TrEMBL record:
Record family assignment: Belongs to the glycosyl hydrolase 31 family.
One GO molecular-function entry: carbohydrate binding
Name of this chain's protein: Alpha-glucosidase
Domain Glycoside hydrolase family 31 TIM barrel as annotated: residue spans: 134-473
Domain Glycosyl hydrolase family 31 C-terminal: 481-568
Length: 710
């Protein structure tokens, strides 16, 4: 058994098969007690730090808490990550008995990569180099994706699309869910319900929308492609060659085996010719586990017990490679329920599967998403409000903060569901991908009552105003591999109190987001990481880090903070990314020097890979109180941006800054207490919404929050 040592300290043992009959392989690493562990794909049990937990790395729809997704990339707070190169079912036990052990059920060798970095982002740069970059998705994907289970006809979908425009609400992508077809795998449209999808898509494109449509890997016997796939041996199959046929309780067809390159190329061609040819822009690749037990099943790549976990990678690659080959001027986009090492290179959004519409699920989504993006895959999402059907009756412990009476046709007897959906929507607006989905009768912004509607509108519009910031952060992910959705350990490695905070996160370099996840709560505790000052977004109140505070959070207020030194470009409100967007504000939060790379391009093609884009480097000099920029012009003349210096109380040594490029200053808007002259009034936020816990404001001690509190 080979031993690996650092000086006299043993840090790794290999466990290798000693005879041909031994197929289980593994390794063990030293685990100091102050080492913490993140990533490993998607685990929905509600914790962030994997230390002391057992993780089953497996594509499992029925896992505890919700779908588990296997991405065997473990990132530590000690300057390294481990990529485990084995796609069989793998068990990881981080931090048990001062060891972290990896055990894979099947393998003929031990193979792994150790990626070292001085910062967490250097580790992700190494992962990018090893497994591939994250291409930019169509800009529309970063706006708002509207869906429900399901729009049952072309007329219903068009009515909802017009409803958004009639209400002057932004949206970008409308989704056609399953059962638009006559049979699973037929790749057709029920002519009674979807009489002319090409005309529908043409009209939606004229309205500024894009469309996504669900395509499953299953093909039912008797459908038009089944015999072709069977004859070529392109189905996942049993040992005798018989195609697998759904699940014991759901004999709904056989899965195409996209681990076979020929099958993958054919599958793309069928989607291109029979779906995308109707004007759809992107594909929802559902059930990419595939949702079949692997024992006894075989792929072109090999036995399911050995290769089951790679199916999401090859399945999404079929689509991405086809787009790049046959539609080179159109960015690929697919929505996948599963993932594996390297899937980020396939232009994929991964969502957390068919989750429940409960407060407990909302709480667990936050650490779930943070560990997933810590696995090197940036574009994660969930079904806002949960996917499963609502219970007939649900009476909360506390009086609902929103009146459900005018939404009864939609929420039934779930008294606090408008409140839950609103809190979830606030959180979802600050995810890399903002999408709604679920099994409600209606699922639009106006579907949850008159009290909820203006709050949902507020966050929907804010999402679009922040698109210049968000799109630029996604550009940084493409360049560096660093995720935009960031657990606090990534940015504050010197603060030990952030190691297991799983209910707060950073979105890009500027925003600390602390969603309210308890029913009836109108405040919550927030830990502000040490080493920087923070601004409460809604009032610009400035607070020192390194302390836990109580934040007032009425139902329309998401606890949202901005790191001192941040530069946040904001655009005018647009109805979709099909419209050009101007930079109308550049918000600066003094207290430290800051830099931001502002990026834009056509949002549709891969021209940015050849430098067909606009990039401007913004710099805030805290000592000089000047914001300067170099590179492309994003504003000129009548389109000059307003520079807002976001200070609650303006320190004597900080004056309103000007934005300079050469000799051309840009206008500055500031008002009393450092508030911008054109700042919108804030709704229902008390004058002093931030209260320290324990030490006074400015103290450098205080514990991390354990959750929300009233």
């Amino acid at each position: 058994m080979p031993n690996y040592k650092d000086g006299n300290e043993q840090i790794l043992n290999d466990r290798r098969p000693t005879d041909p009959e031994f197929y289980q392989v593994g390794a063990s690493f030293a685990s100091p007690e102050d080492e913490h562990y993140y990533g490993l794909g998607q685990n929905q049990e509600g914790y962030l730090d994997h230390r002391g937990h057992t993780v089953q790395c497996w594509q499992d729809y029925n896992a505890t808490g919700g779908q588990s997704v296997c991405v065997p990339f473990l990132v530590t707070n000690k300057g390294y990550g481990v990529v485990w190169d084995n796609p069989s079912k793998t068990t990881i036990r981080p931090g048990f008995n001062e060891q972290t052990t990896w055990t894979s059920e099947v393998g003929n060798r031990v193979s792994f990569f150790v990626i070292a970095g001085r910062t967490t982002d250097e580790i992700y740069a190494g992962y990018r180099l090893l497994t591939g970059p994250t291409p930019l998705l169509p800009k529309a994907a970063y706006g708002y994706i509207q869906c429900k289970q399901r729009y049952r006809s072309q007329d219903e979908l068009m009515s909802v699309a017009k409803g958004y425009r009639d209400r002057h609400l932004p949206a970008d992508v409308f989704v056609v869910d399953w059962f638009y077809y006559t049979k699973m795998g037929q790749m057709d449209f029920d002519p009674k319900l979807w009489p002319d999808p090409s005309a529908m898509n043409a009209q939606l494109h004229q309205m500024g929308y894009q469309t996504m449509i669900s395509v499953w890997p299953r093909f039912v016997p008797g459908t038009r492609f089944y015999d072709t796939i069977l004859k070529n041996g392109w189905f996942e199959h049993l040992a005798d060659g018989t195609p697998t046929n759904g699940l014991p309780y759901d004999r709904a067809g056989s899965d195409i085996d996209t681990t076979n390159p020929d099958a993958a190329k054919w599958y793309w061609g069928a989607i291109r010719d029979h779906i995308l040819s109707k004007g759809f822009d992107s594909i929802w690749l559902d059930e990419t586990e595939p949702d079949l037990p692997p024992n006894g099943s075989y792929f072109h790549a090999g036995p399911g017990t050995e290769f089951f976990n790679i199916y999401p990678l090859t399945h999404t690659a079929a689509l991405y490679d086809g787009f790049r080959r046959d539609m080179p001027n159109k960015r690929a986009l697919s929505l996948s329920r599963d993932a594996y090492l390297g899937i980020q290179r396939n232009g994929v959004i991964v969502w957390s599967s068919d989750i429940s519409p409960t407060w407990d699920t909302l709480q667990r989504q936050i650490p779930t998403g943070l560990d997933f993006t810590a696995s090197g895959i940036a574009n994660w999402s969930n079904d806002t409000g949960g996917w499963q059907y609502l219970p007939a009756v649900h009476h909360p412990l506390h009086r609902p903060l929103l009146d459900p009476s005018d939404a009864r046709d939609n929420v039934g007897g779930y008294d606090d569901y408008p409140e839950l959906y609103t809190r979830w929507f606030e959180y979802a607006a600050f995810l890399p991908i903002f999408r709604t989905h679920g099994s409600r009768n209606e699922n639009e912004v106006w579907s949850y009552g008159k009290q909820a509607e203006p709050i949902l509108e507020k966050y929907l519009k804010l999402r679009y105003e922040l698109l210049p910031y968000l799109y630029s952060a996604e550009y940084n992910t493409w360049k560096t591999g660093a995720p935009i959705l960031r657990a606090l350990f990534m940015d504050f490695p010197k603060d030990p109190r952030v190691a297991d905070i799983g209910d707060e996160y950073m979105l890009g370099p500027a925003f600390l987001v602390a969603p309210v996840v308890e029913q009836g709560a109108t405040s919550r505790r927030v830990y502000l990481p040490a080493g920087t000052d923070w601004y409460f977004y809604w009032t610009n109140q400035r607070v020192h880090g390194g302390q836990t505070i109580t934040v007032s959070a009425p139902i329309d207020t998401l606890p949202l903070f901005v790191r001192a030194g941040s530069i946040v470009p904001m655009g005018n409100l647009i109805m979709s990314t099909a419209e050009p967007q101007k930079i109308v504000k550049v918000r600066v939060y003094p207290g430290a020097d800051g830099d931001f790379t502002l990026f834009d391009d056509d949002g549709k093609t891969y021209g940015y890979e050849q430098g067909e884009d606009r990039v401007s480097h913004l710099h805030w000099g805290n000592g000089s109180a000047k914001l300067t920029h170099s590179g492309a012009d994003f504003w000129s003349g009548a389109d000059d941006a307003i520079v807002e210096i976001e200070q609650y109380k303006e320190p004597a040594n900080i004056a309103p800054a000007d934005l300079q490029r050469g000799e051309r200053p840009l206008p500055v808007g500031t008002g009393t207490n450092g508030r911008s002259l054109d700042s919108a009034p804030q709704d229902n936020v008390p004058p002093n919404p931030v209260t320290p816990i324990g030490p006074p404001t400015g103290g450098q001690s205080g514990g991390a929050p354990t959750g929300s509190s009233r």
